[in-house]
Design a protein that fits this description.
Strand order of the largest sheet: 1-2-3-4-10
Mean pLDDT: 85
Low-confidence stretches: 1-6, 119-159, 164-175
Oligomer: single chain
Number of strands: 60
């Protein structure tokens, strides 16, 4: 029979198609079901039509035009529509190692359905009632309908098959418990280093290409791919959106990503590689920002949906049909989900809860476990990646400007271990084989003086490379700050009248967070962290160690000193309150302020605090009184004071202004400008005031750049 063009048969009507066998599978086009024994799975209508069309060809090659005519009724469709259907059929054939059928691609011609090789083992899944076999991969197990086991199951042949499946299950369990390689970095080299901002690296399944995003400073990001063998990056997206989080399909032919536009729900997009054709697969329900990951061997991506008055949700989105369903719901407002990552084998989903707890989800059973707790600090930036064998989750932890650490978390329950440490700030990462692609931040920040009039450039106090942050003054005008300019994280000091700073304490690669002078200037409180804890050290102004203690967290604008200088104040995430901890005897601890008060500044004229949620500053020692409604919310640096005024940074102008807010209340008055000051996720500028001169010093960004390096891993 011919269609209206005289070339192909009529469009396929699934309702009128008869059932047929395909190797070990029974195909029922009218119900769109694939059956193997007692197991059933339903295919999408278009995928079933393609399968029927290939079956009608009876071993000959079916061209793309023929498939379009018979399955899409001759409508104009993109190549990615056919590719998705073929890819879905191939994933179906792969679950029994192509024992029932396979689909062969004939380049520039079409596709051919080939008979399978015979019986093959079926993957074993676990349910609450015990083991079950599944026709589909792990991500599709929820759609399986299990019929009662037929009597012939007791026959010797089938029993032998069951025994073989049991052996496979035991082997899989042994594989999981077998010691995973312990990874470490043995070398590194720059891979992409331009004046643009490059981030979000993602290796293609074969490891031949790297996808990444690139943008000029302040501009929207676009997605590129680049061969690891060399050459320039090839632009994949070309739109007005801010494109981020590229994730590859199993066949390396597509990239899913999130496209952002201010004020609009984000979009889940799919692009072909290298054809650069893009389509919108879905829109976020309300979130303007998200992150996604593509599950290997499936048409599913998992993405994060920001909630209103509740915690975040992870949705599973079918890129073929647009259907989505929630798989993780967090009930509390502060339960933020970030950086979801599917394992290379498609079995696991790892994600961060509250940016600190690594959650591991078995996608076949829905069972979740806590893999690790990477940090308790409020401003930590973290990212996740999987080792290529799907047996270890790597977590990168970057503390503001204060160095970075990559830790390995084995799935078999072994203790986490250090993979890589650097004084440089690092971000997103990806692994393929023994290569680790790493986003490195070469942004430079310096200390600058605030000016009385607007200026395009900051008045730099101290020229240096790398990051400089956390300035603090002693009463005599000595300035202390943190910097990685020497290649390690160190405490630097500049005495009154000096023209250059000197190192007081070299912290090596320890991620130093903040340094604060005591009220009398004789001691410094220095905060640093590891993946397991926060440590506060008390040292003399000459750098000698006095005491140290561990804290569960630091909170916004902390640690700070009590007015008498006998204790420091830190935040406890367990009670959401602040504690006073004795500087001489850290065992002496007591609650300083109730829940949700952070950024504590204890002065002779009152105790002042900020909160994480609304803008503003409050005086809290005489009952909470709001003295400012414009101080930025969730601002991490400590409050800075000049006389009887608290400094309020105003980022609504260019350059940013500094307002003087009387602590007694009343209107704030502009007093200075701070070009280069930032209120961005990657940098929130600190401010400090020289008590002898009244000069305001702040952290200014003088150059922003992120690149991608390739690190070589070794496992032992």
């Amino acid at each position: 029979m011919s269609d209206e063009t005289g070339r192909f048969g009529p469009p396929i009507d699934l309702a009128s198609e008869k059932d047929f066998a395909l190797g070990n599978l029974r195909i029922s086009p009218s119900t769109r079901e694939i059956a193997r024994g007692a197991l059933r799975e339903m295919l999408e209508p278009r995928v079933m039509q393609v399968l029927v069309a290939l079956s009608h060809a009876e071993g000959r090659v079916a061209s793309r035009d023929e498939l379009i005519a018979r399955c899409w009724e001759g409508r104009i469709v993109g190549e990615d529509a056919i590719n998705r259907a073929i890819g879905r059929l191939r994933r179906l054939s792969e679950v029994d190692n192509q024992a029932s059928f396979s689909v062969e691609t004939i380049p520039r011609v079409g596709y051919r359905l080939l008979p399978g090789s015979g019986l093959a083992a079926v993957p074993l899944l676990m349910t609450e009632s015990g083991p079950m076999t599944s026709l589909a991969g792990p991500a599709e197990a929820a759609r399986i309908v299990v019929s009662p086991v037929p009597p012939f199951w007791r026959r010797p042949l089938v029993a032998a098959i069951g025994l073989a499946i049991l052996v496979l299950a035991v082997g899989a369990g042994a594989w999981l418990l077998w010691p995973a390689p312990r990874w470490s970095v043995v070398g590194s080299r720059p891979f992409i280093s331009t004046l643009a901002l490059e981030d979000y690296p993602a290796f293609s399944p074969g490891g031949a290409m790297l996808a990444y995003t690139s943008a000029q400073s302040g501009g929207p990001r676009q997605i590129y791919v680049r061969s690891l063998a060399g050459g320039e990056g090839v632009r994949i997206t070309n739109d007005t959106f801010d494109d981020m989080t590229p994730s590859w399909s199993s066949d390396g032919a597509h990239l899913a990503y999130v496209a952002l536009k201010p004020g609009e729900p984000c979009r889940i997009m799919v692009a072909t590689v290298p054809g650069s054709q893009t389509r919108e697969a879905a829109r976020c329900l309300r979130a303007q920002n998200s992150a996604l990951t593509w599950q290997s061997g499936s048409s599913f991506v998992y993405y994060v949906e920001r909630a209103g008055l509740k915690g975040d949700t992870i949705f599973r989105l079918n890129l073929d049909t647009g259907a989505r369903e929630p798989v993780v719901r967090e009930p509390a407002l502060r339960d933020i989900i970030s950086v979801p990552k599917c394992s290379p084998d498609g079995r696991w989903l790892a994600y961060l809860l509250r940016n600190q707890i690594i959650i591991l989800r078995d996608l076949s059973t829905g069972r979740e476990t806590t893999l690790g707790d990477i940090s308790q600090r409020g401003d930590v930036e973290a990212a996740l990646a999987w080792s290529s064998d799907s047996r270890t989750v790597l977590a990168s932890i970057a503390g503001g400007a204060g160095g970075s650490l990559i830790t390995g978390y084995p799935l078999n329950g072994a203790a986490p271990y250090q993979v890589y440490v650097t004084a440089m700030k690092i971000g997103h990462m990806a692994v393929n084989g023994n290569l680790l692609a790493l986003e490195t931040d070469t942004t430079r920040t310096m200390l600058a003086r605030a000016g009385a009039s607007p200026s395009a450039e900051p008045d730099i106090l101290d020229q240096a490379n790398g990051f400089t942050w956390s300035p603090t003054f002693a009463p005599n005008g000595t300035l202390a700050f943190l910097s990685n300019r020497s290649g390690t994280n160190a405490i630097w000091v500049m005495k009154a009248g000096a023209t250059a700073p000197s190192i007081l304490v070299d912290g090596g690669f320890s991620p130093l967070f903040r340094v604060r002078f005591s009220p009398d200037g004789t001691r410094l409180a220095v905060a640093s962290e590891t993946p397991a804890k926060v440590t506060v050290k008390i040292i003399t102004a000459a750098g000698a160690a006095l005491t140290s203690f561990d804290a569960p967290s630091l909170g916004l604008g902390l640690p700070s000193w009590t007015r008498d200088g006998k204790a420091v104040i830190v935040f406890d995430r367990h009670c959401l309150c602040t504690y006073r901890i004795s500087a001489e005897n850290p065992a002496r601890r007591s609650v300083f302020a109730g829940a949700h008060w952070v950024g504590i500044a204890a002065r002779s004229d009152g105790v002042f605090a900020t909160r994480a949620d609304p803008d503003g500053i409050w005086r809290i020692d005489q009952g909470p009184t709001r003295i400012s409604s414009t101080y930025p919310k969730f601002y991490l640096p400590p409050m800075a004071f000049r006389g009887d005024d608290v400094l309020v940074p105003d980022y609504s102008t260019n350059p940013p202004r500094i307002l003087a807010q009387p602590v007694s209340g009343g209107a704030a008055v502009p007093i200075a400008y701070a070009p280069g000051a930032q209120n961005q996720p990657w940098l929130q500028s600190d401010y400090a005031v020289n008590p002898r001169t009244g000069e305001i010093v702040y952290v200014a960004a003088v150059a922003q750049d992120t690149n991608i390096d390739l690190l070589t891993l070794t496992g032992r």
